[in-house]
């Protein structure tokens, strides 16, 4: 139903005083039914490409690291030696060199991605002022270059850190740009569903690269594991070419959009003052930083992302160390929790629409309800996974799938609330939230690799205990203090004046009634 609504132009349900009456339904565009649908699909492809370039290392590290020697026994004879990082690498027939990154070095390389994400606090502000289309294209282009750096300069640990930092920086440019673009392209009634389609691209990217990476690890194509990075970069190039021709910062810049759809989006965005870049408006940082609603959403998003980062970065390593799966099987099984997360995102968005249409619950109540169930289920099944050993490997995979399924309920939950509370400053609010996500993401891999020294089940259980605590925290914080209502400081001047006039009118009416009764 929601997809059909997005595929055609439909009348607005509400308009502010002084606006034109609702537009009649207009016929779909002659060669594409709705450019809102096309925009959502393109953004989904964008996230898929960027996430392929992000999570490719989590799978390739299983087959590119030399695990045949200990840290105290470096192989430096009959093999090459790299003075750049003082590590040895082994060359196998038909395969690329293996590298000898220590667990600590691996943790730093994974953390470098989140170090780049810290810049989202800056890019979030820029997303509300600059052309979002070129920010998206630029972010993917940076990720493509950085991804190709890894197989080319893998013998240098420092170049690998720089490459991962640049991929994180590209993601920092992408997320707020997409959120800002969504507020310009979609009315509030469609935004939650559009967000689920767009961000579902992250799971789609994982589904595409993880099983393929497992197969490439065993092949000799481009040396084996380097083919994983080449394939990821190629996906980014394909998206850039498509988006340059089909994408636009806002509807008015797309020449082939139908007049009816353009007018519909313009009226919808006028109610929130989101249809244009806010160069003339300053970001109310004081109001944002003092807003309990903002911080409740930020904490919920951080607690949602922390377990997901653990799964994205270390699930293949966990399945390899604890349950002893081969690379090919590991690649297939590692994609199943991601598939569950993607399915849950779509289904939960349908559930969100159904609750809005068939209940009297407010948007805030629906967000809290779905987010609470998601956080509880995520935490319970992450903990349940720690109770299983290698003899119940299939059940552990099932529990991980269920945990990620419940995590999908956060999309119409805290993530939708993050966009809803201040649509006019969605880039800034998103940047603030993902600044703290990135901060936790820097600690996550370093802490994980510090804990997991001998690859034992007990060490991995401790990692899952920490993720469980993070997952359960929003059951209290967001359920009590969370909201999806637009904050008064984020409303347009027209709306603020309108509500001030209503309040003044009610006060005058009450005073006149009191005087008459007296």
> Main sheet, how many strands, which sense, barrel?
2 strands, antiparallel
Low-pLDDT regions: 7-31, 69-90
Count of individual helical segments: 19
- What is the terminal separation in angstroms? 55 Å
- The level of helicity is over 70%
- Here the CATH topology equals Growth Hormone, Chain: A
Number of strands: 2
Mean pLDDT across all amino acids: 78
- Largest beta sheet: strand ordering: 1-2
Radius of gyration: 25 Å
CATH architecture: Up-down Bundle
* CATH top level label: Mainly Alpha
Tally of domains? 1
CATH homologous superfamily designation = MFS general substrate transporter like domains
Dominant shape: globular
- The structure class reads mainly alpha
- Quote the beta fraction: under 5%
Order of helices and strands: HHEEHHHHHHHHHHHHHHHHH
Membrane topology: Multi-pass membrane protein
Keywords: Membrane, Transmembrane, Transmembrane helix
GO molecular function, one term: transmembrane transporter activity
Region (Disordered): 1-24
């Amino acid at each position: 139903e929601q997809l059909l609504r997005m595929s055609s132009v439909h009348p607005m349900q509400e308009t502010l005083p002084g606006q034109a009456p609702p537009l009649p339904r207009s016929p779909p565009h002659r060669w594409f039914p709705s450019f809102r649908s096309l925009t959502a699909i393109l953004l989904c492809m964008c996230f898929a490409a960027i996430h392929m370039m992000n999570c490719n290392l989590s799978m390739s590290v299983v087959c590119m690291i030399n695990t045949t020697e200990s840290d105290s026994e470096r192989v430096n004879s009959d093999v090459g030696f790299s003075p750049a990082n003082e590590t040895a690498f082994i060359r196998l027939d038909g395969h690329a060199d293996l590298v000898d990154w220590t667990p600590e070095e691996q943790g730093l390389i994974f953390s470098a991605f989140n170090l780049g994400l810290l810049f989202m606090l800056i890019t979030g502000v820029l997303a509300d002022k600059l052309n979002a289309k070129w920010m998206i294209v630029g972010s993917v282009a940076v990720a493509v270059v950085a991804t190709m750096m890894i197989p080319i300069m893998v013998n240098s640990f420092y170049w690998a850190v720089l490459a991962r930092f640049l991929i994180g920086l590209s993601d920092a440019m992408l997320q707020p740009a997409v959120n800002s673009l969504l507020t310009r392209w979609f009315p509030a009634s469609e935004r939650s569903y559009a967000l689920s389609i767009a961000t579902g691209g992250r799971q789609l990217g994982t589904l595409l690269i993880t099983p393929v990476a497992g197969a490439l690890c065993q092949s000799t194509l481009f040396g084996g594991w380097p083919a994983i990075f080449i394939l990821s970069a190629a996906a980014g190039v394909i998206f850039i070419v498509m988006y340059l021709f089909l994408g636009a910062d806002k509807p008015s810049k797309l020449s082939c959009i139908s007049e009816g759809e353009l007018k519909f989006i313009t009226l919808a965005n006028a109610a929130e003052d989101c249809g244009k870049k806010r160069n003339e408006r300053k970001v109310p940082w004081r109001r944002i930083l003092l807003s309990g609603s903002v911080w409740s959403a930020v904490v919920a998003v951080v607690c949602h992302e922390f377990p997901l980062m653990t799964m994205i970065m270390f699930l293949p390593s966990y399945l390899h160390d604890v349950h002893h799966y081969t690379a090919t099987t590991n690649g297939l099984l590692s994609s199943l929790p991601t598939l569950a997360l993607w399915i849950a995102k779509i289904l939960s968005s349908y559930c969100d629409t159904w609750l809005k249409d068939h209940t009297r619950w407010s948007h805030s109540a629906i967000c809290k309800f779905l987010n609470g169930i998601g956080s509880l289920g995520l935490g319970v099944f992450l903990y349940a996974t720690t109770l299983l050993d290698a003899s119940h490997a299939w059940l552990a995979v099932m529990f991980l799938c269920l945990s990620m399924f419940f995590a999908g309920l956060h999309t119409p939950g805290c993530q939708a609330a993050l966009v809803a509370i201040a649509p006019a400053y969605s880039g800034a609010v998103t940047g603030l939230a993902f600044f703290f996500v990135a901060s936790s993401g820097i600690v996550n891999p370093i802490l994980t690799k510090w804990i997991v020294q001998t690859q034992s089940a007990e060490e991995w259980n401790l990692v899952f205990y920490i993720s469980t605590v993070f997952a359960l925290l929003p059951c209290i914080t967001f359920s009590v203090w969370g909201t999806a209502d637009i904050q008064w400081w984020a409303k347009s001047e027209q709306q603020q004046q309108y509500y001030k006039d209503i309040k003044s009118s009610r006060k005058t009416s009450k005073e006149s009634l009191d005087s008459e009764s007296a």
